[in-house]
Every structure is written in C-alpha cells, then in structure tokens.
Amino acid sequence: MDRIGIIGGGFSGLLSAMLLEEALGGQVEIVVLEGSNRLGGRMRTTRVPGTPATYEAGVAEFYDIAGNPQLRQLVRYLNLATRPLVGRPYFSIGNQVIRDDAGLERLLGRRGIDRLRRFWADGTARRSPADYARAGQPRDNEHPWLHRTFEHVLSEIDDPLSEWFTAVQCHSDLATEPARTSGLFGMDNLLIDHPGYCSMYTLVDGNEGLIQALSDRVRSPVLRDAPVTRVDAHPDRGFRLTCRTVDEPRHSVDLDALIVTLPPSRLRAIRWSDAALCSAVQAHVLHHDHGTAYLRVTLFCRRRFWRDQFPEDYFVSDAFGGVTVYDQSPDRDGDGVGVQSWLIAGANALELADRSDEGVVAAVLSAMPSALRVLTAG
Length: 378
Prior knowledge:
35% of the residues lie in helices and 23% in strands. It has 13 helices and 19 strands. It has helices at 11-24, 70-77, 101-126, 129-133, 150-154, 160-174, 183-190, 209-217, 264-267, 275-288, 346-353, 357-366, 370-377, and strands at 2-7, 28-33, 45-47, 54-56, 62-65, 82-84, 91-93, 96-98, 198-203, 222-223, 228-233, 239-243, 251-255, 257-260, 271-272, 294-301, 314-317, 323-327, 338-345. Strand 11 and strand 12 form a beta hairpin. The model has no long low-confidence stretch (mean pLDDT 92).
C-alpha cells in the first residue's frame, strides 16, 4: 500500500489528509507530521482570563470571496455556525474619527476624494471579481501591476494624503510595506474592503473550531512534536523523512509521496538532500518569502469603553503605519468586559516583537486613538 506523508498539522495539512481519505479510502496510508505540540498553525482561539468567553489569538476572520465558494462550502460541510464580521468605513486618523464618506472628504479634500475614486475605478477595471477569485493563477503573471511595487502603484493616486491613507487602510492585511510587495498583491488586499469582491465572517464557537472539526474527521495518525529535519530520496519508495520525536531523536518515515504545507520560513529549516528538490524548494522560498510579519496584541479592559465611538466589529487606526483593531468583547450589547485585539503588521510588528510584553502593551496604549484616551485614563 502506498504511503503519503503530510508535513504540517495546520489547516492545509489537515484538510489535505481529510480530502485524501475521502477520495482514496483504504487504498493509501497517510501520516501527518506536526512540529509543535498543537494543531492549527495560525488559528488559535483561547479564553478571556477569568471568564468562559473566548477570543481569537490567531486568524481573526475568514474571507467569503465572490466566485470562490470553496471555503464557505467546507464550513457548511463541517456544520460550523458563522456570523458576519461587520465594519463599515470606521477610521481613526489623528484626532478624527471617520464614519462615512462625508468625514473622509473632510480629511482628504475634494481633490483627494476624486483622485481616490479614480484609483479605485482603475484598480477594479484591472482586477475583475472573477480574476480576484482566481488569484494566484498563471494568468496573474501577465498582470501589469505584478512587476511594479505597490508603492509605485499607489503613486498613481497623485495626492500625497490620499496615497498615505490608502496605505494605512490596507496595512494590516498587507503585512508588509508598500515598497516591499507587488502592486497586484497590494490591490488584492485593498479589495478585501470592496463588498463586490469579498465579505468576512467568523465562526460562532471560535475560529479554531475549523481545526477541531477537521482533526475529528481525520482517521490517519497525526504525530505531534515531530519536526521534520531532513528529506532524502529513498531508493525503493520516494522519500525518507527524518524527524525528532519524544521517544526517538532521529525517527525515520519512508513515503511514496509527500505533501508539504509549511510557510517559507519553516521550509528553510529542513535539509533537502536531493539536489534537484533542494533547488526547487529554494526557488519556491525565494519567490514566496517576502518578509511579511504580524504581531497580535490583545488588551483586556474592565469595560468596553470604545462602544460609542467604534460600535462595530473592527476599525482601522493610523497607528503603527495602519492597524486593524478588532472588538472581541464577549458582551457586544453592553459595557461589560472589553477585549481589543490589535493586528500590527510589517516593520512595526518586527520592531515591537523585540520588546518585553510590558513594553508592547505600553506602546499600544500610547497609540490608542485620541478619541479614546480620556476614556482609557478614566
């Protein structure tokens, strides 16, 4: 019987295992190897201290992309309840809270608004909803914005304040700086805010419920605390994996086929002994590793003091180059315990990651929107 190995016990690895089991049944043997002691990768739902309520310490939302229903279909197939994630254009820019187009025009001026609308019209003309739904397909190689930086593309707005505002708007989704990624990737992240392209939702019982539902359906062995350190060609089968386990520092797994579901940083940690395979992995890492970074900071507050100023699920602040602040308070209709989750991205995330926890919290509190600082102090 053929044996298939899957490196990585996150969403992609568990989904691969489930689909292979459903498609091939008992025709193959599958093993999943996870380097840490938990499954789920970037999805992590945990409890608010001292309460039964939960919040997202990892992936904050799922995207419902028009014309790409696969994730939504999977969620339905797994019988997971969802709720929409709602956030009209609420922005905190300097001392202003912007809630609508009129407020945005007061910030940017009539010329800035006109330039911004022209930019969005051009961007949506160059990126149809159908192409957006197929992002990453080979035809993207022909897109005129793929080989230009997002910084260069933003300069077409021809209004410095509107250009800056647009970079702030998508910074948390971009996870890097406009000069360090392509114009196409930047536009795709902007279009997350376009209702004709994308909407967002979360799982009622926590986003990590998706991982639990997948792992409940996977019958194949899943080895935790089994980081793969080396991949060799096997003379009789296909691959020989070397990993560390609790009981064996050099455990070998022989496979006929291999699926790898790791991010570029983790791929670099594996030694690929076959020259051709090593070269292919290096080319993959070079192409996909663009130095993105996230730091998620969660504040637990005695009360939801921002309720009146920012009543919806999230808002965007110009702090840290642009940060999305999620409201994960358990009592959304009252003034009980408040939970704010700041998704800091790019260079600011890397800089803050070197500070102590106390230093990070102090930086976030000092970056609290002006409209909320008096309430925070009180």
